Amino acid sequence: MDDGMSADGTSTTKKPGRKNDPEGTKQDILDVATEEFSSLGFAGGRVDAIAARTRTTKRMIYYYFGSKEDLYLAVLEKAYGDIRAIENNLNLQDQEPERAIRSLIEFTFDYQEQHEDFIRLVSIENIHRAQHMKDSKVIRNLNVAVIDTLAKILERGRAEGVFRADIQPIDLHMMISAFCFFRVSNRHTFNLIFHQDLSAPDTRARHKRMIGDAIISLLKGEPQHRQDS
Amino acid sequence: MDDGMSADGTSTTKKPGRKNDPEGTKQDILDVATEEFSSLGFAGGRVDAIAARTRTTKRMIYYYFGSKEDLYLAVLEKAYGDIRAIENNLNLQDQEPERAIRSLIEFTFDYQEQHEDFIRLVSIENIHRAQHMKDSKVIRNLNVAVIDTLAKILERGRAEGVFRADIQPIDLHMMISAFCFFRVSNRHTFNLIFHQDLSAPDTRARHKRMIGDAIISLLKGEPQHRQDS
Amino acid sequence: MDDGMSADGTSTTKKPGRKNDPEGTKQDILDVATEEFSSLGFAGGRVDAIAARTRTTKRMIYYYFGSKEDLYLAVLEKAYGDIRAIENNLNLQDQEPERAIRSLIEFTFDYQEQHEDFIRLVSIENIHRAQHMKDSKVIRNLNVAVIDTLAKILERGRAEGVFRADIQPIDLHMMISAFCFFRVSNRHTFNLIFHQDLSAPDTRARHKRMIGDAIISLLKGEPQHRQDS
Amino acid sequence: MDDGMSADGTSTTKKPGRKNDPEGTKQDILDVATEEFSSLGFAGGRVDAIAARTRTTKRMIYYYFGSKEDLYLAVLEKAYGDIRAIENNLNLQDQEPERAIRSLIEFTFDYQEQHEDFIRLVSIENIHRAQHMKDSKVIRNLNVAVIDTLAKILERGRAEGVFRADIQPIDLHMMISAFCFFRVSNRHTFNLIFHQDLSAPDTRARHKRMIGDAIISLLKGEPQHRQDS
DNA sequence: AATGAATGAGCTTTCATTCAT
DNA sequence: AATGAATGAAAGCTCATTCAT
């Protein structure tokens, strides 16, 4: 009972953790909460478990974040903020259109691959029908430059006569995202059912080429015969 | 206390529900549980809530399914069994290769579109790293004919000189699935961020064409220049 | 769900077990119940667990025995009936008094040693303050010949001038029982606290001699100096 | 619903009980739990019942003790701690050997007589094959001075030529304990079967003398003729 | 600003037993 | 005489949150 936990698993007692460093403490909580929610979902994540892996106590989580839901939202906002910041700093206008598209795909592919936590948080939020995000001014106000970036590349490509297809930037973005996201988000069930390993280096390399080829050939190809169904 | 609910919201009173119809009762539970878990996830789903929407009582859920986890697994097995049964009955070998591919894509697109519950369950199970599925003999033993179907179509296409690309069936399946799945699984966050409506009929039609075009042009196109990264 | 158990562990379905043999079935149930209650106590014993290890179903337990309590009582009555039957068949009047006493001690010692189930059931019933036994006419009416047997031996011993002490048969019986019973009933805590093994053969032999010596020297010794306290 | 009990008999309403007195509250719980488990066993004892007789709520039992099993273990540890503390303070080395032995017997006899709860807890723990105690560092580390005390007395007795028998301290302790323990632990079945009252004052006095006489005559007597069996 | 102690409400699961033929 | 199916009631435990300073 003197290990900082009450017998029922509630973390209670003082820890040596940094005092008088509100920002440090908040960041600490946020990091741990990111792991917890990303790993176990919102409902599955435990405030106690977060507190236990933190330098502070559970009480401080409530002090700084107010509620489990608000903490979860802060985690979500941080994750979205990070990717937006990077996306907004991509500079693809110096490259010729096809190369720019491939660069964007490769960036997306690699980022998703390396940020499984983010992928999982987005999946989790979709399970919740984005109900938490809807309340977030922060995420609402995030600038999504990637669509503009894509639009400009497509325009340049069309102007140069390289891209013929009439593809909308947002649809293209979705197609790229879908592939890169799915590889990570659904790897567990996919691996199990198809006896694959989507994490294997050679599979990763093959997939990276394939999505690039598919997008480029879509953009360069003749509009296909279309029948509705 | 005569509202049929005990103080904790647990329904206790008898219901008129069908007696002596074990299969009907089990199916009833399964249907409601599918909604509950699909909507709220495994951790977020409540056995009490399932029972309340059922003709039976909570006790019967445990009588028939043993535990919350086993019930969830039964839901998952049913969902996978349904799609596999349909997939295995697709008959695409009568169509010429390109048409067969487009048919498969259209089927996949429509099925995912119409079975959001299934999509959500798969997402949820991936959040759990497929841990429940790993224990399921039922899902392990499911025959996944779709890969063979694709392989035969690709082979015919190559024999006829229509498909030139060296694309593996399983990778192609993943690409198709990724797009069709993502549209549904991630629609909530996508709609919110990009101010889109992925459910809108015209968007749906456009996307359906686009994924078809992308796959076909990938299969028909010259192997693209490939650079590793 | 076709292993004769419902998913929640309730044994339900038919077993191949002997039909039309009520006595055999009852005996089967009784044997299994003896193990269960003896091992886990009355509250800890499970009707389901008993049924599962039986040739019949749980329903039959209620059919034949009426309730968990009645089944437990039947087990208790059987256990007491067995030892009484044997005790009543001891023939110690052919032996000279000291030898007869030693024989009785050895019989008691060995019987308790070999019937741990009985020991445990008696302990369990004492935990329940003999409340079940109080309702049992069967146990009430059991003839306890051992006290008479002891009385006759003591009388013979006094008549022969061998036993001088004024010890009552029932007290002597208690002293013998206490030692033999405790060795078995309390062996788990005793072993743990004193780092002993009360089951070890040499310890058993030593103890058997010791209790014999103690009783005999008590019976043969001069009445000791007695001070009340 | 304003009787302070929810539908399932669980007490939910606030009690006036002492706040901000963790130690007092824990002691309160421990006392009530001792009664409950001692009276009904581990499986038969109810956390709800304990809570109901306490100044606090069921929730606090889990807050302070973690689980039913841990609470039970705390009860056991307290009971063992109490007797060991007293045993370790016995001072018998000032008395001549025979008197010291008689004093020890009388102390044991009286303590067991007066601490039926302890006796019952030990019986209960033996029914559980000491499985809880095995996990208890507290009990494992308890110093059992009584064996050393006995050893020293026996040695003095042999040095003075008073005790001739070659009896081991631990065996002697077991014999004394067996008698004193059994009188209390088995009184309910014993009384019922032999129509005795082991609690009656005259019976108690007679038994106290008898166990003393038996032990002393064993220690002073000639080694008896020993035959194996 | 910071926090130790406490907790109401509800969760999953189990248990002996009876319904209905 | 025998039994498959069903179940009310309650048990142990957990969770996010607030009290009180």
From TrEMBL, chains A, B, C, D:
PROSITE patterns: HTH_TETR_2. SUPFAM superfamilies: Homeodomain-like, Tetracyclin repressor-like, C-terminal domain. Residues 1-25 are annotated as: Disordered. GO terms for molecular function: DNA binding. The keyword Protein biosynthesis does not apply. It holds the Pfam family TetR_N. It comes from the Bacteria. Residues 46-65 bind DNA. The keyword DNA-binding applies. Residues 23-83 form the HTH tetR-type domain. Keywords: DNA-binding. This is TetR/AcrR family transcriptional regulator. It comes from Azospirillum doebereinerae.
